[in-house]
Amino acid sequence: MQAHPGPTADAKARLDLRTQFFTSRGFAVVDVNYAGSTGYGRGYRERLTGQWGVLDVADCLDAARSLVEAGEVDERRLVISGSSAGGFTTLCALASKELFAAGASWFGIADLETFRHQAPTFQAHELDRLVGPYPEAAATYRARSPLHAVDRIARPVLLVHGLEDSVVPPSQAQVMAEALERTGVRHVLLTFPGEGHGFRRPESIRRALEVELSFYVEALGLTGGKSDAPLATDDAIVASSPDQRQGR
User: Fold this and answer.
1) CB-based contacts of 108: which residues, under 8 Å, 6+ apart?
2) Which of 85, 93, 161, 203 is a good FRET partner for 176, with 20 to 30 A between their CA atoms?
3) Across the chain, what does the average pLDDT equal?
């Protein structure tokens, strides 16, 4: 399952090479145009006002449940991913229910309050609409932040981030990795020097996708179609649970 960035953007019915990468390797992919997405009228877009981290997550969970009920997917092998705002939704979904077996956040937001201070002007003002005016709604910012709900995350997490990201600072991924380390949840932090908010270099994109595929294969206990890309490389900072580092 993929949660699009934005968050008031949309997933379009068009060729997507990331989707092709996974479907050509046996994965089914669903893009969720959750509450707040464009293309469905102002009312639908404004549903996310004050509800980011709530309605977007609920829609992703509902989409997953409906696919399970329809017999279209294996409920034991559901994964969720997203980039930027979609990465935030992914982390929130992992913290809200144990519905997904694993998740991948690409340059996603882990701590809304810190991000509110660090974000560019447009994103900072948009947070006032999507979450609440700051500092009046500081408690809501903390309550909606995956970082402060890390004790509810039990499934493996992949964090992918560019070290030159000027929109969502790489420290967002780092603090999330540190929190997951403390709780003992298996995780991988994969970072790329020279990449910003959205990767540009073909070698970075390929490397990240290969690691994501390997991460899912391992997390889901699959035996076929595994990428030959190891999880640890010289060009990436990798963090994992203590047990994984020791090969247990």
Assistant:
1) 82, 83, 84, 85, 86, 87, 88, 90, 91, 159, 168, 172, 173
2) 203
3) 91
